[in-house]
Design goal:
elongated, DedA_domain, mainly alpha, 0% strand
């Protein structure tokens, strides 16, 4: 029923809980190659903990804070230590992708950081050009990153809840208090 990634994700969540979600999202935010797809892990975590608001909140927070921290580390590394992520073998980013991200930031500024973080496939790419070519402070960058990551993780949460509701039985759902949590 589950793919190998989903089975691995469930095992990580059962063993390490929200810490596993935090670590994977921090690595994704830092543009490090995907050890495990973050989306799969997040949805598996929501399925594992259930759909009650209090159970899902730590998973949601771990994902948002992890992604924001990872992107902030890239931002700081580029700004303060002149690190070139495109030169690192772990980071799957090319010069053309960085140039495109730079054009986004030049045109729309910090809202582009938030918007790009809300879209799969572009998440985190604006950390490098924002650090290189702007006077944006680290806290302002982190705030824009947080807003976009919260929107992205919120959409993943909706998917996770839909999967959890599809996986659970009707008796489980009525006893879970899901409607009361909304």
């Amino acid at each position: 029923m589950f793919s190998a990634h989903a089975a691995t994700a469930l095992a990580l969540v059962e063993s390490y809980g929200a810490v596993a979600v935090f670590a994977v999202f921090a690595l994704e935010g830092a543009l490090v190659g995907k050890v495990l797809p973050a989306r799969t892990l997040f949805v598996a975590a929501v399925v594992a903990v259930g759909v009650e608001a209090l159970a899902v909140l730590p998973v949601f927070a771990a994902a948002v804070v992890g992604a924001t921290l990872g992107q902030s580390v890239v931002f700081a590394a580029v700004r303060r230590f002149d690190v070139d992520p495109a030169s690192l073998p772990l980071v799957p980013v090319g010069e053309s992708r960085l140039a495109g991200a730079g054009r986004w930031f030049d045109r729309w500024g910090l809202p582009a950081v938030a918007a790009s973080n809300a879209v799969p496939g572009t998440r985190g790419w604006l950390a490098v050009p924002t650090a290189n070519a702007s006077s944006v402070s680290a806290p302002r960058f982190a705030a824009a990153s947080l807003v976009g990551s919260a929107a992205y993780v919120g959409a993943l949460l909706a998917v996770g809840v839909a999967v959890a509701l599809g996986v659970g039985s009707a008796a489980d759902l009525l006893g879970a208090g899901w409607v009361a949590a909304i």
